[in-house]
# Entry
Amino acid sequence: MELPSPEELMPLSQTLITPHLAIAFHITNPSHNHHQQQYYSSQETPQFPHQPPSATEEEPARTLKRPRLVWTPQLHKRFVDAVAHLGIKNAVPKTIMQLMSVDGLTRENVASHLQKYRLYLKRMQGLAGGSAADSATDHLFASSPVPPHFLQTTARSTSDHYLPFVPALQQHRHHQQMVVAAHFGSPRNAHLELPILSRIGASVPGYVEDVESGGRKVLTLFPPGDD
DNA sequence: CTAAGAATAT
DNA sequence: GATATTCTTA
# Structure
């Protein structure tokens, strides 16, 4: 099965800044500092107010506060594809995350989304007749077709995985995106028993996308627009 | 100890 | 409401 080549992949990206940059730019908690919550390209150089009296120590990357993840339809599609490919059994946050191989995507991100998605699926099974289960909330979930076997009332025993992992093709239409300097994409999760994963060495290049959402700067893993 | 999943919190 | 974080449990 075709695995996404770097060119085929959506410009999946995660706004990431190195701990060093975060410190240097004094980027901290968005809820406390949302007015300065920004992510800078390698060229934009913000003028930060000042350095806190005793904050010159490097803070571990895992301790840094990550920006809120926005689940774009593209990203959700990757999620669904991953779940479909894995089968309900193996579709747990960690595995899904690994198969998605989206740079910067955390297990918690996936876990939270999975929880919501399962609720959606459950709610959808109730409406077997044909009445649409849309409440403007499900627009995201409705954006990607739900694989039939997701809606099994009881878990299957055999054949639960077979769908090819179809990468979301992207017509190089995303122009001037800000390419961030920080590139966390490395063979971070490159050892797994899953055969497919061994072939997925690819993490996606980094693009930065600031998005206004409810007055807060938020980060997207995909540029807005076409699919 | 890790991580899934549900329950809360922001 | 969407996503994050906490909490309990496997």
